[in-house]
Batch of 2 targets.
Target 1
Amino acid sequence: MSLSLPRAAPRAETMTALAEHLRRRIALEGPITVADYMGDALGHPRWGYYTSRDPIGAGGDFTTAPEISQIFGELIGLWLAQAWIDLGRPAPIQLVELGPGRGVLMADLLRAGAMAPGFLDAIELTLVETSPVLRQAQAERLKAHAPRWAARVAEIPDGPLLLVANEFFDALPIRQWEKTPDGWRERLVTWSDEAAEFGFTLSTGSAPADRLALGLSAANAPEGSVFEASPLSLSVMNSLAERIAAQGGAALIVDYGYDRAQAFGDTLQAVKAHRPVSAFETPGAADLTAHVDFHALARCAREAGAAAYGPIRQGAFLNRLGARERLERLTDRSDPRQARALAQGVARLTEPDQMGVLFKVLAVTGGVTPAGFATADTTPAPNGSSEP
Ligand SMILES: C[S@@+](CC[C@H](N)C(=O)[O-])C[C@H]1O[C@@H](n2cnc3c(N)ncnc32)[C@H](O)[C@@H]1O
């Protein structure tokens, strides 16, 4: 997927503290990978984007599905409760969210999950979150459920697992390679003193990742093609899937992305105050994301011994779980203004020209077909979404 975003960067006098750190880092180490740039921009312990702010909502930089409609979290709560029942109602069970933002999704899903007798008593809640600012917001919203926090998946306590991740994987760093007349070269980020801005340069050696060498009929890609991979995303998925295969559980991954077997295209994008900006403009002060390669995640889960379902489109998934019925029930109890807002929220999440198609849902289980998916959803078509 190509995005024609501006690549130019600001002048040195307007540099963020993080931009200055990156400039010095490049001066010392030489050009850095896109993953290193993204990792620092989002997660630097002092000046990283997520370290230093709450970016979500109308007054921030972007809005997410749970912030748009409570129905999103409620339906996911029912999905998780059903997965728990399918597992034989184990107690305790680890309930985990990766990147919980302000805790809205978790609060909504726990409220709905309470409808399954025994579910709330069985769960032990872990939030995988690196941002101290967002941990604070989560602590306030979720204190009744006594959450614990982890900085990485490896810290989640052992046992059967129920996991949800909404817009988490798109925040994990990617690497990029570009097809040149001399073959594939890695894109690196450099700094030009002369222009006083960041920009791309290419690696001199041809050292594509194994996945690039294995996964692509790279010879057929036209010159200028960009290929992306997120090694950290694969590593997280590998850990989750191995664990689900060994200890039981179910995971639901929701994000924007593609599911093609061979995806070319530059999807690195930056957003500030709900508008696209250059990825190089204000590192540390703008959100930086890339589309999620669902095909790679699903393959990784299967290779780790778990079953992967989807990806299917978010709109289809929510409708199968009963978004319309839930909307009707809520509308019955609302005044006309609230009813309009509820309907708009569901439309935004499900309509094809809004979030219904771009956003996709992948489920990973130990083998049980999860709610909202069909057995047929286990085999994504090589060149498109696995369902209409
Ligand atoms: C785009 S927000 C999504 C928030 C929430 N899931 C929602 O739907 O509103 C990304 C979340 O992932 C967290 N995050 C980003 N990178 C992370 C990492 N490497 N480890 C743990 N959490 C991370 C952010 O702090 C934030 O909570």
Note: The CA atoms of residues 189 and 200 lie 5 Å apart.
Target 2
Amino acid sequence: MSDIPLVDLAAQHAIIADEVAEGWRQILERAAFIGGPPVAEFERQYAEFVGVRHCVGTANGTDAIEVALRALGIGRGDQCILPANTFVATAEAVWRAGATPVLADCADDATYLVDPDAVRAAISPHTRAIIPVHLYGQAASVERLMPLAGQAGAWVVEDAAQAHGARRHGNSAGALGHAAATSFYPGKNLGAYGDAGAALTQSDELAARMRMLANHGESRKYEHQMPGVNSRLDSLQAVVLSAKLRRLAGWNAARRTAAGRYEALLGDLEEVVRPRVLDGNEHVWHLYVVRVPDRDRVVEDLRASGIAAGIHYPRPVHLTAAFAGLGYRHGAFPVAERAANELLSLPLFPGITPGQQERVATGLRKALR
Ligand SMILES: Cc1ncc(COP(=O)(O)O)c(C=O)c1O
């Protein structure tokens, strides 16, 4: 029996291979690899898809968060609140912008999203941004964070790296706050063939600053208004992203169907805490994350039966060596810490078959025995 991967990118490529080959052929012929019509076209399409006025392509998602924060004037001496349970990049981007990450625990409700009450408690006179992370494919409750940010004189910058196409009360992740950043890392719901990302906003002025910052602070050729970074979206990646964007809604629907199958297959397993969809959310199931006892052994057992299981993430930000210097102790964020010990991501991708999911469920049942 063949192994079941966590994600299957080859199957997606087979669907768009001809389109990508033709787009790349044209770029190779023109020998114009940075910017140009494919990038502008993708930026226009993605902004429209999310429902924002501006999409600024960047080299990756981490840069996109940094660029969004810096475009808002956030830097040294400022604090940005973000969840303890996220990929470390969210904290890194804050740190690279020169600001200090301040962490908040997640809600104890099997969504693993940041707890707005914990965010409120973390606000200080130095708070300049709240960064909700739309983790695993569903949006955080940004509508509860916007008033908090308003009172604190801070901005809401969404980390929408895991939520392409997700909606909250009908609006897209990435269009819920003042600005947003996303990643097109290959394994994402909308993934490039290498690194890529984008910053998003409704504001013309902010978008202009984002675009400058991402391109050496340049307003016009060799007119450098501020020290920026080199973080641009390549035209080869833009071709892939445009081809995939056309199929994204269908692929997200297939993920939803697959998540529904896991719901049915795992419903009777008392030891398994299945993921909860927050009221008002359209989840796009970037990851199907459950909580199980004795997680590390379960992962090993699954892998031994040819089932790839992931852990997102084995350590909350404050327990990484990189951010130990923030000074938080073990026990500071109990919900995130428990999640880090028990979370397990099951294989889920648009082309996963009912048979593969049944095998995953059987494997999990066996591992839990
Ligand atoms: C939640 C989250 N934030 C930020 C990033 C950073 O994106 P990138 O890897 O493109 O820099 C990622 C993905 O890797 C992510 O999952």
Note: The pocket of pyridoxal-5'-phosphate is lined by residues 60-62, 86-87, 89-90, 133, 159, 161-162, 183, 185, 195, 197 (CB under 6 Å).
